[in-house]
Write a structure and sequence with these properties.
This protein has about 270 residues and is mainly alpha-helical. The chain contains 12 helices and no strands.
Length: about 270
């Protein structure tokens, strides 16, 4: 025990977190094929079905409520932000729980010089990488499908990554404390689905009742959707964009702060 503590004191903070990140890279090199559907084919079919399938019907009845743009141009940035959220939830829920309960990656890491905060930050770095990979693919598809209306669309990529991080950090901080896996069913059923439906992803918030619209404005997904959409369409309202960035950054910071503490309480020996 004393030798482990001595080893931890000799390793710098960044190296320890990077070691934990490299562990997850090693795992991913063996399982990456299983993510092809969700990372590549899923966004293609989703954008095609919503943008060209449903979009044909919407455009036929007028696009005034969409700001005069096609439904494809309206919905694609929303799908970009929501896919970042989906990736974050997937990577920060069951994998975190499984690392304690099933494959016990976290338990094995406890016997190394890694501290609980290093384990958390290293895994969060991997989650961010996965969010960035998927967001980059969706951004490329968005451009290829002709949904982008401005060169500012390149900035929608980091906006989507920030949106995903705002979900990943708090969820991971909570997931490490979960005792039974059925808890995640409630997260996806009462968290993910309502957020996708009522955060401006598929239709303008102006279509919602006033009280529900106010609730939507405080959800992190709406901030991500609106930020990605204004960048994709080139209609950037700088003060509003800064509010979105500040909100998502603050939520990410709170999640990172909370994660360092929940991981220490669960994994500290």
């Amino acid at each position: 025990m004393a030798s482990i503590a001595a080893s931890r004191s000799r390793w710098p903070f960044s190296s320890l977190s990077l070691r934990a990140f490299q562990c997850w890279l090693t795992v991913y090199r063996r399982i990456w094929r299983s993510s092809i559907w969700s990372s590549v084919l899923g966004p293609v079919f989703y954008l095609g079905a919503m943008g060209f399938g449903l979009g044909t019907l919407v455009d036929r009845h007028g696009t005034a409520s969409l700001g005069g743009v096609s439904y494809l141009a309206f919905v694609a940035p929303g799908i970009l932000a929501s896919s970042a959220m989906n990736t974050a939830m997937s990577e920060a829920s069951y994998p975190v729980f499984g690392s304690v309960k099933w494959n016990k990656i976290y338990i094995g890491a406890q016997a190394s010089p890694l501290r609980p905060a290093d384990i958390f930050r290293g895994h969060l770095m991997f989650m961010t990488m996965r969010i960035a990979m998927n967001s980059a693919l969706v951004t490329v598809f968005l451009v290829v499908f002709g949904a982008a209306r401005s060169p500012w669309v390149v900035m929608a990529f980091p906006a989507a990554v920030l949106t995903g991080l705002a979900f990943a950090a708090p969820i991971a901080a909570w997931a490490v404390t979960v005792k039974i896996e059925t808890s995640f069913a409630y997260l996806f059923r009462f968290g993910l689905m309502p957020l996708m439906l009522f955060s401006g992803t598929f239709f303008p918030l102006s279509q919602l009742p006033g009280w529900l619209r106010l609730l939507a404005y405080v959800t992190p997904l709406w901030h991500g959707v609106d930020l990605c959409r204004m960048l994709s369409l080139g209609d950037v309202d700088l003060p509003r964009a800064l509010i979105h960035v500040a909100y998502l950054t603050a939520l990410s910071a709170v999640g990172i702060w909370a994660g360092a503490r929940t991981y220490r309480r669960r994994l500290y020996v």
